[in-house]
Design goal:
about 500 residues, alpha+beta, 3 domains, 5-stranded antiparallel β-sheet, 18 helices, 13 strands, binds iron/sulfur cluster
């Protein structure tokens, strides 16, 4: 029979509703609450609040709200605050009741400004340390990659700083000032901006990057992921035009500072495989498992069909090369900025050489470059081409793709806020959430095992109960048997005393 829902009056008051009981046992927020200590934030931001004035929203609640914002990929802070009263699990996670007053959405942006990116960096570092303590971080082998983040700004906001437009634009003076400040900062940090000529009036920290056929304002996130359980151990956001190759050493240093373990092997793609990076690895005693950048550009159109550098044999004694035709390429100049020594054959030899068409397109003859530390580089190149290195390079592709693919769920590839420091906060939150997920997946497993213990205990209890009941039955049987035999003995004894003629009946 079909049931009908009678239209009735809404219940005005609900008694005996306990939020704790309404949130299921395996709810991810319950696990986060069990695993993560949010109380640390009080100590972290203590100096950022005054001792008088209005009482603020507790920092632990603000941090949890920011976590909810990214974890559930809520479009805006306004929408987050509107959704909080509708979600029992969120209310429980925040320690709120049905009648708690929900803070205004502006609380979050004010807190971000007050706390700064250092607080979120500290939160990220704490979770990395927790992963380390849980045995989820090896620390010795790290994988690296970078990915682009679309800035929250239209390409229409881009201004050519060298065009006449600047004289017409109202806010240009302000922008120019900010650009100058930014150029000062980037030159200090070693970042090389390719397109500093074009600046966005809405997000000047982002830079124009062409990717997938489209030029857009973008940022770039640089990540180091540990090999053991794919914990993100180092992260940094830069303008989109910054070359990831320049971020290898900073990521190694961040990883070592966060884990306290010296890196043994770095695995990265060919963009990191520069001579400078190989030499850095050599100086730090690190194995650089990266495709050599030079090799990936060896088959360019201008070099196609001409002798590769391997055909030229270097003679250490005379510090010169011998070419396939048997002539000598002598040392010519040192290029200071790239630390390369140029070797060249004599023009006369090359012009009369029969192999010239296979050797060079240059009229003056063939020349070669050799790094001043080529012997160190050769050693590193050989180590980067071993079977283990090739396996690592293959693993890196899947591992890093997986790491960024998981971040897509949290909308990492689209910046929520404008400004480099805010995008850094976003990336810290995304990476922290991913690491918390890794903690949940791996740390709750032993808990499941410990949960199984009561089952074993229960089984043992049941076994003991059965045993005891069997023992009781046996004892009862034994007593019964003993009683019967005593009764028999007693009746026999009475029979012997009796003088009736019924003996033996
Ligand atoms: S072109 Fe010059 S460098 Fe090349 S093989 Fe001939 S002589 Fe040697």
């Amino acid at each position: 029979m079909m049931g009908h829902h009678p239209p009735g009056q809404e219940t005005l008051f609900y008694a005996n509703i306990i939020l704790e009981e309404r949130v299921r046992k395996n709810h991810p927020l319950r696990r986060i609450n069990e695993l993560i200590d949010f109380e640390f934030i009080y100590k972290e931001v203590k100096d950022k609040y005054g001792s008088k004035g209005n009482v603020s929203i507790p920092p632990s609640v603000i941090l949890k709200l920011m976590l909810l914002l990214v974890f559930y990929n809520v479009r805006s802070e306004r929408e987050l605050m509107e959704t909080v009263p509708e979600r029992i699990d969120w209310l429980w996670f925040l320690g709120y009741n049905f009648d708690t007053v929900i803070p205004d959405h502006s609380v979050l942006s004010k807190a971000r400004k007050r706390w700064g990116q250092e607080t979120f960096k500290s939160f990220f570092e704490r979770i990395v340390f927790q992963c380390l303590q849980a045995g989820l971080v090896d620390g010795k082998k790290i994988f690296m990659d970078a990915s682009l983040i679309d800035a929250d700004a239209s390409t229409n906001s881009v201004i050519d700083s060298e065009s006449l437009k600047r004289y017409l634009h109202h806010g240009y003076q302000e922008l120019e000032k900010r650009l100058e400040e930014k150029q000062g900062e980037t030159s200090k940090s070693g970042d090389h901006k390719v397109n500093s000529r074009y600046i966005s009036s809405t997000d000047p920290d982002a830079s124009i990057v062409r990717y997938g056929g489209k030029s857009k304002l973008r940022y770039k996130t640089h990540r180091a992921v540990d090999s053991l359980c794919e914990v993100i151990t180092a992260v940094e956001v830069t303008a989109g035009a910054v070359d990831e190759g320049h971020k290898m050493l900073p990521l190694i240093e961040i990883n070592e500072a966060n884990t306290g373990i010296k890196v043994d092997t770095v695995v990265a793609d060919s963009k990191y495989g520069t001579k400078e990076n190989f030499l850095t690895c050599n100086d730090k005693g690190i194995n650089g498992h990266m495709p050599i950048l030079k090799n990936s550009s060896a088959n360019t159109a201008s070099r196609k069909g001409i002798f590769s550098e391997e055909k030229f044999i270097y003679d250490k004694q005379t510090d010169s090369f011998n070419c396939p035709a048997g002539n000598v390429l002598k040392r010519r100049t040192l290029h200071e900025n790239k630390q390369n020594i140029e070797y060249a054959a004599s023009r006369k030899d090359c012009s009369s050489c029969l192999l010239k068409s296979q050797c060079t397109n240059c009229k003056t003859g063939r020349s070669l470059q050799r790094h001043v530390r080529q012997d160190d580089l050769n050693g590193m190149f050989a180590a980067a081409q071993t079977s283990q290195a090739k396996r690592d390079i293959k693993t890196r592709q899947h591992l890093m793709e997986r790491s960024f693919a998981r971040s897509v769920r949290f909308n990492f590839d689209r910046s929520r806020w404008r400004g480099l420091w805010k995008v850094n906060i976003q990336e810290y939150l995304v990476s922290t959430i991913q690491n918390i997920q890794t903690l949940i997946w791996n740390v709750t497993k032993p808990k499941t095992k410990t949960l199984a213990l009561p089952c074993v205990h229960e089984a043992s209890k049941r076994f003991t109960a059965v045993l005891s009941s069997v023992r009781t039955s046996l004892t009862l049987l034994y007593i019964q048997m003993a009683q019967d035999s005593i009764r028999n003995l007693f009746s026999t004894f009475l029979c012997h005393l009796c003088f009736e003629d019924c003996y033996g009946v």
